[in-house]
Automatic annotation (TrEMBL), chain A:
CDD domains: HTH_XRE (cd00093). It comes from Ornithinibacillus bavariensis. This is Transcriptional regulator. InterPro entries: Cro/C1-type_HTH (IPR001387), Lambda_DNA-bd_dom_sf (IPR010982). PANTHER family: TRACRIPTIONAL REGULATORY PROTEIN-RELATED-RELATED, TRANSCRIPTIONAL REGULATOR, PBSX FAMILY. It comes from the Bacteria. Keywords: DNA-binding. The keyword Nucleus does not apply. SUPFAM superfamilies: lambda repressor-like DNA-binding domains. One of its GO terms (molecular function) is DNA binding.
UniProtKB/TrEMBL annotation, chain B:
It comes from Ornithinibacillus bavariensis. Keywords: Membrane, Transmembrane, Transmembrane helix. The chain crosses the membrane at residues 9-30, 36-56, 81-102, 108-131. This is Uncharacterized protein.
Length: 72, 134
């Protein structure tokens, strides 16, 4: 199952740029971009930091895509 | 904080190490004249490398703010690249040895080995650079 996230939507809603987010969480901008595009699953530490920084519950930021499982 | 201190010291240490290594190498192994002019090229290269690195890091800082140049994703990609590189190199070296043996080659020059090692080293370095950028 794939992990999907809502980071881009939440970030844009709060008016935070990728660079600002990357600077504050001390990761590269490319990593933020890869996470937002669901190409890279961040570590548990970074995921928790993201949830805390964006001030949203962890489970509403990340969730499992069950459509693949249902398709099978 | 500890990492930042290390980063400050790592370049001078590399340059001084290279200079000392070359001077010692020329002094101990150059049996004819101990010509130290050979040693000048290496520190010059190291200093030039440092200047290029410094200019590039300044440009990157201007471009992407105060973000680090390396994070958990880069570490993971580097690990994956090194595992793949290790397997490919072991396979390639094994194949080259078997082919050489089949062709009847029983000895090899150290110079050829050094050149092969240098090419391998450059390829791994370039690969690591590409893996980091992905």
């Amino acid at each position: 199952m794939k992990v999907i996230n809502h980071i881009r939507e939440v970030r844009q809603r709060k008016g935070i740029t990728q660079i600002k987010l990357a600077e504050d969480l001390q990761v590269t901008r490319q990593t933020i971009n890869a996470i937002e595009k669901n190409k890279y699953n961040p570590s548990l530490e970074l995921s928790l930091k993201l949830a805390e920084y964006l001030d949203v519950p962890f489970t509403s930021l990340f969730y499992l895509d069950k459509s693949e499982e249902n398709a099978e | 904080m500890k990492n930042q201190k290390l980063q400050v010291w790592i370049w001078p240490l590399i340059i001084v190490g290279m200079i000392l290594g070359v001077i010692m190498g020329v002094y101990f192994f150059n049996d004819s004249t101990n010509n130290l002019s050979l040693a000048i090229s290496i520190p010059f290269g190291a200093v030039l490398g440092f200047i290029i690195f410094y200019l590039l890091s300044k440009r990157n800082k201007r471009k992407s703010g105060n973000t680090p140049s390396f994070d958990e994703r880069n570490t993971l990609m580097m690990q994956q690249f090194l595992v793949i590189a290790q397997n490919v190199i072991m396979l390639a070296v094994g194949t080259a040895l078997v082919i050489s043996y089949a062709k009847g080659i029983t000895s090899i020059n150290i110079e050829v080995l050094i050149v092969c090692w240098m090419i391998l080293f450059i390829l791994i370095g370039l690969g690591a650079l590409v893996a980091k950028r992905l």
